[in-house]
């Protein structure tokens, strides 16, 4: 990965499924060389590989529920070990997860440099998720209408196949959006007073959202030589 500019950042990308967190995480990865850690991608890889973690997570994911906090927190303690720069996409998703993250980062003396809330309404999220096409290997996503690949079914970047996620059906999407409102939306108040909390209008076109993300990121972090 050859980044345009290397920057230390520790961001939480917060917001409902379909808001565009993963899309913007890929843009930030390319621009700043900072790694996206997507709990959803990690869990799906475990399901695909048939690991014990995947077996524990599968039923929750298929039904639009959250995987239990103890499983996720243990997984993330592992993932974050030894990293001083990261984009958290899809984590934390409950107040208990946010508290565990806070304790861990405090112990490591690595405070968050930003919390970005991607704001979008339910109708938009529904259309985005049910029209999403995903590269299962990399997690990169496209949209049949809003962000189509150059060739249908093929990832522009690595030529890999694009599939529709089993939880992007109308029925499971409705449950996932309910789960977000009930369990994750309380994090808006939890992080709302954080010094680097920014609300991003996620309804705007992808390039406009990227510009807003860049402005928010510019307010924090250290540019490395
Ligand atoms: P999340 O990671 O928050 O679940 P994604 O980044 O996967 O969301 O985006 C969900 C869907 O919406 C994808 O199909 C993506 O191509 C599309 N999308 C992302 N950002 C925008 C945007 N700003 N405008 C229109 N469609 C978008
Ligand atoms: P995502 O790819 O972020 O949409 O996540 C897909 C699914 O993985 C969710 O619907 C949950 O079942 C599970 N999942 C991902 N991240 C978490 C998390 N932080 N806590 C609990 N479950 C999660």
Descriptive report:
- This protein has 225 residues and is α/β, with parallel strands linked by helices.
- It is built from 9 helices and 10 strands.
- The chain has helices at residues 21-32, 39-49, 52-62, 69-80, 95-107, 122-130, 170-184, 186-192, 206-218; strands at 7-8, 10-14, 36-38, 86-89, 114-119, 132-135, 141-143, 162-163, 197-201, 222-223.
- It has a 5-stranded parallel β-sheet with strand order 3-4-2-5-9, with helices on both faces.
- α1 (21-32) crosses α9 (206-218).
- The structure holds adenosine-5'-diphosphate (ADP) and adenosine monophosphate (AMP).
- Adenosine-5'-diphosphate binds at residues 17-23, 128, 132, 141-143, 146-147, 204-206, 209.
Topology:
Layout: E1 7-8, E2 10-14, H1 21-32, E3 36-38, H2 39-49, H3 52-62, H4 69-80, E4 86-89, H5 95-107, E5 114-119, H6 122-130, E6 132-135, E7 141-143, E8 162-163, H7 170-184, H8 186-192, E9 197-201, H9 206-218, E10 222-223
Parallel strand pairs: 2-4, 2-5, 3-4, 5-9
Antiparallel strand pairs: 1-10, 6-7, 6-8
Helix pairs in contact: 1-9, 2-3, 4-5, 6-7
The structure holds adenosine-5'-diphosphate (ADP) and adenosine monophosphate (AMP).
Residues 17-23, 128, 132, 141-143, 146-147, 204-206, 209 line the site of adenosine-5'-diphosphate.
């Amino acid at each position: 990965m050859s980044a345009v500019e290397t920057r230390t950042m520790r961001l939480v990308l917060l917001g409902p499924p379909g808001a565009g967190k993963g899309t913007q995480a890929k843009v930030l990865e390319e621009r700043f060389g900072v790694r996206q850690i997507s709990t959803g991608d990690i869990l799906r890889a475990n399901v695909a590989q048939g690991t014990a973690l995947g077996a524990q997570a599968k039923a929750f994911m298929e039904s639009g529920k959250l995987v239990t906090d103890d499983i996720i927190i243990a997984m993330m303690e592992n993932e974050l070990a030894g990293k001083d720069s990261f984009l958290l996409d899809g984590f934390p998703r409950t107040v208990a997860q946010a508290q565990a993250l806070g304790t861990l980062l405090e112990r490591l003396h690595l405070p968050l440099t930003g919390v970005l809330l991607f704001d979008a309404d339910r109708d938009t999220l529904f259309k985005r998720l049910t029209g999403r096409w995903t590269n299962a290997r990399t997690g990169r996503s496209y949209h049949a209408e809003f962000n189509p690949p150059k060739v249908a079914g093929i990832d522009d970047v690595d030529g890999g196949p694009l599939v529709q996620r089993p939880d992007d059906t109308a029925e499971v999407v409705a449950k996932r959006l309910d789960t977000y409102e009930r369990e994750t939306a309380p994090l808006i108040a939890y992080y709302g007073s954080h010094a680097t909390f920014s609300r991003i209008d996620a309804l705007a076109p992808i390039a406009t959202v990227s510009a807003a993300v860049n402005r928010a990121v510019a307010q924090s972090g250290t540019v490395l030589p």
